[in-house]
TrEMBL record:
Keywords: Transit peptide. The keyword Transit peptide applies. This is Glycogen debranching protein. The lineage of its organism: Bacteria, Bacillati, Actinomycetota, Actinomycetes, Kitasatosporales. Belongs to the glycosyl hydrolase 13 family. It comes from the Bacteria.
């Protein structure tokens, strides 16, 4: 029986409901109306719920025709009304006879009712018009040539110092594209932009008791829908249009777009969480459940997605294809990707999980970047062993840990970092160097400035007693905890930041920068700022002036990487000397050429990278890093015949002498280097 709301007859009387098609899933516009198809194995019956697009009030509920049911897919075709006249949802009758609340379409391209940032959402599904093909061709940058820049859409421009007209939005980020071009990055990795509920956080601010947000967005509600709260026009249609415009303009500037996607858990949480969609439609297909029916919690968020169930596998693939075909994004970073290797019912790690393979071999995704965060909340670490199928790259957390220990002069640091510097061949043997996404900082943890300013986390503002976040980040405050005016401490911190950035941007693999590290952004020691929608998480753009020397240094390092193919090789270099080469692809040195120090206590590492070019001169760079606190003298190997060493960067020198733009490097008039304590020097042969 159809139920309607009084006063809505003009809209509803013209409608006709009949059986629809089971493909594609979700809601699609067809001539004269709309087709609805939804998998709901746990439902005895289902209703299509139509809602007012302005207020969200229910207008009518139509039963899905029994003759339209195909297997576990309920179908209905609605004729006689344009989709812009209504929002929609579903209601199911469970085997017990109880009815669900109005559910979201898991395939909805738009979610209405989310509202502006910070408003409590009243979600409902919306059918969006087909935007047509992309307006701008996407840049076809080789993975080895990428420099990735990790960005939180709201935090990037929310602070008044950003100077944009629409702060905290897709449009605000679009206004900053000239800055990204000037910095030299050619790929942005956006923290989750799929619809999430930022008001979903149980913790409150100490002292005030004010609710804290879920700022980062790792609690997805609509996997296919851009977040309305990130749009200046905070509607489903506005978010859709603004995000498409953002991607197009980034592509126009030569910048690729990678999305951080969350398929390991959802915003439905544990058993006491909201019943939004998947739980009522087919809980055991979409979630891992214990024998007594409780959601497994391998993600520390209340539930765990049953990623390798065929129904869920299809949902994930359809979602990825949707972001590619509708918005033309260039790739994906998969949060807690180790969950994608687990199978039901107990969540065990599968020997050959089907979902990573299906993603790797999907024809629509064939030329898109795939990046796994190869861990999960249980402590599983698959860095180097995630099933890559020749396609996947990985966030290399071991690179992060290694470079930090090396720069702090820890035992064994030099030898381990040497392996990371050439692309971690111990982890990625037989794979290209771009399998390793190298980073020193990311959204999760201390910023680079804070890594040099704090020995311990300072997370009291998160309302969790200060015990949340990573316990030990291998950080060093350089002699004083937190802000200081001590010039010696400040100089040392400045060198350590430059050391880290120079090593990152000369290492084999894909380098990733955390937004704001290039000008010294601080989170005041907070290393788990997921709940901080404040100056703690917002970029303070005034620091681009205050730390202009650091910003200039980073621009030079990015340009240096772009100028030297030897830093962007796709294969791991070895020490064998090819015929006709002046040097092997990589050679290691110490205070004297050809005499590296691999003792566990070593604090000096020098390396020469060389590559003969098919046409033109060879490309040769030499790097020496002194991670001890005393000055070291390094005797240089001879450069290739007919060339001289030129100075690219010296982190021990004051700005602006600490770096030089490619082509402007001054020639050395000596055969040795004086390395200041805690400094790195880079030379090129010209």
């Amino acid at each position: 029986m159809t139920t309607t709301t009084p006063g809505r007859a003009p809209l509803l009387n013209a409608l006709r409901v009949g059986p629809g098609r089971p493909e594609p899933l979700g809601a699609t516009q067809v001539p004269g109306g709309c087709n609805f198809a939804v998998h709901a194995r746990d439902a005895r019956r289902m209703w299509l719920v139509l809602m007012d697009p302005g207020q969200g009030t229910v207008l009518a509920e139509y039963p899905f025709p029994e003759e339209g049911r195909v297997g576990t897919v309920f179908t209905a075709r609605l004729d006689g009304v344009s989709p812009d006249r209504f929002d929609y949802g579903f209601r199911v009758e469970r085997p017990s006879g109880a009815r669900s609340p109005v559910l979201l379409d898991p395939y909805a391209r738009g979610l209405a009712g989310a509202g502006a940032w910070g408003e409590r959402p009243r979600y409902r599904s919306r059918l969006l018009a087909d935007p047509g093909p992309p307006a701008v061709p996407r840049p076809r940058t080789n993975p080895a040539d990428l420099v990735v820049y990790e960005v939180h859409v709201r935090g990037f421009t929310r602070d008044p110092s950003s100077g944009v007209g629409r702060p905290g939005t897709f449009a605000g980020l679009r206004e900053k594209i000239p800055y990204l071009v000037q910095l030299g990055v050619n790929c942005v990795e956006l923290l989750p932009v799929a619809e999430f509920d930022e008001t979903d956080n149980t913790y409150t601010a100490p002292g005030t008791g004010a609710p804290l947000p879920n700022f980062w967005g790792y609690n997805p509600v609509g996997l296919f829908a851009p977040k309305s709260g990130y749009a200046a026009d905070a509607t489903a249609d506005g978010a859709d249009a603004e995000f498409r415009e953002l991607v197009a303009e980034l592509h126009r500037a030569g910048i690729q777009v990678v999305l951080d996607v969350v398929f390991n858990h959802t915003g439905e949480g544990g058993r006491g969480g909201p019943e939004l969609s998947l739980r009522a439609l087919d809980e055991s297909a979409y979630y891992l459940l214990s024998p007594d029916g409780e959601p497994l919690n391998l993600t520390a968020t209340g539930n765990t997605v049953n990623a390798n169930h065929p129904v869920t596998e299809r949902l994930v693939l359809d979602c990825l294809r949707g972001w590619v075909t509708r918005y033309d994004v260039d790739g994906f970073r998969f949060d807690m990707a180790s969950i994608l290797t687990r199978g039901g019912p107990d969540g065990r790690i599968l020997d050959d999980p089907p979902l990573p393979a299906a993603i790797a071999h999907d024809p629509v995704l064939a030329d898109r970047l795939l990046i796994a965060e190869a861990t999960d909340a249980t402590g599983v670490d698959q860095v180097g062993s995630f099933p890559g199928h020749g396609r996947w790259s990985e966030w290399n957390g071991r690179y992060r840990d290694s470079v930090r220990r090396f720069l702090l002069g820890r035992r064994g640091g030099a030898g381990d970092f040497a392996t990371r510097f050439v692309g971690s061949p111990d982890l990625y043997a037989g794979r290209p160097t771009w399998a390793s996404v190298n980073y020193i900082t990311c959204h999760d943890g201390l910023t680079l400035a804070d890594w040099t300013a704090y020995d311990r986390r300072h997370n009291e503002a998160n309302g969790e007693g200060g015990g949340d976040g990573i316990p030990d980040e291998e950080s060093w405050n350089c002699g004083f905890e937190g802000p200081t005016d001590d010039p010696a401490v400040l100089r040392l911190r400045a060198r350590q930041r430059r050391n880290a950035l120079l090593l990152l941007l000369t290492s084999a693999g894909i380098p990733m920068l955390l937004a704001g590290d290039e000008f010294g952004r601080t989170q005041r020691g907070n290393n788990n700022a997921y709940s901080q929608d404040s100056a703690v998480s917002w970029l303070d753009w005034s620091q681009t002036r205050e730390n202009a020397g650091l910003l200039r240094f980073v621009r030079h390092c990015v340009a240096l990487r772009r100028a030297h193919p030897v830093l962007r090789r796709t294969t791991h270099p070895d020490g064998e000397l090819p015929d006709g080469w002046s040097f092997p692809p990589v050679s290691w040195h110490g205070e004297n050429p050809g005499q590296p120090d691999w003792h566990p206590s070593a604090t000096l590492l020098a390396v020469l990278l060389h590559q003969q070019q098919p046409a033109g001169p060879a490309d040769t760079v030499y790097l020496a890093a002194n991670t001890g606190g005393v000055r070291r003298v390094v005797h240089l190997p001879a450069p290739p015949p007919g060339t001289r060493w030129h100075l690219c960067a010296d982190t021990g020198a004051p700005a602006p002498l600490d770096s030089h733009a490619p082509g402007e490097e001054p020639a050395l008039d000596r055969s040795s280097l004086q390395l200041t304590g805690h400094s790195v020097v880079l030379l090129t042969a010209r």
